[in-house]
Design brief:
72% of the residues lie in helices and 0% in strands. It is mainly alpha-helical.
Length: 262
Amino acid sequence: MDSWVRFSAQSQAKDRLFRAAQYACTLLGYTLLKGGASRDLLSKVKQLESHLSLARKLLRLGNSADALEAAKRAVHLSDSVLRFCITVAHLNRAMYFACDNVLWAGRTGLLRGLDQDKWSQRSFRYYLFALILSLTRDAYEISLLMERESRGTGAAWKAPSRGLCAPAQENGEALIGSASEPPCLLAPLPTQLRRRLLLLAAVLRGNPPLALDLLKNLLDVFIPLDRLGLYQTGPGFVGACGLASSVLSILTMVYPWLKLKP
């Protein structure tokens, strides 16, 4: 069992490195195309991207089982909203990885005549559902923390960082134009909205794993949206989002305390 856990962790680490390289190739290919590079160079970059994608599919052959195990653990969470979001997200990831395995078999010739476009679309739909549920989980946790912070500190609380607004006064209004503080960037906004944004910033600043997970999911969601044709942004933007989210994923492996739990 321990050997399988170590093997799974190593595969995930390699997958994230390969993912970063794959989306770096996507971004590089787009940049070279815009720069008027030769067809031969563009073809080599595209081929490298395809090889990296196939290698990632090989590394993820056992990920469906890992996702199902994670779903089984999430079923026991006490919070009903977290239990639903995390469990169903893991189930969708399991289906996404299963579709990925089928695509790998098709590309290697094990499943001849496979409709790869159909299975690719199916795979990205499961991926999109998993990301939507993960974003819902992030939003729910943020709302809980904002409510707790609001109850604990009351109306008068210090702004999370300078440059947004100066510290709050006794009446709860932000001091604007103070000689010791930079101008309030949120001053044009309504007071209630300004307070909510400051509270959100304070919560995210105090919870790096949650902030990192939210940012990573927001970056990732553009990938299936583009692939499914729901919100097309182009290969350059997709490559940049994929590369950035991959770097954030690698950070959670290098620094495990940045990984959102459960």
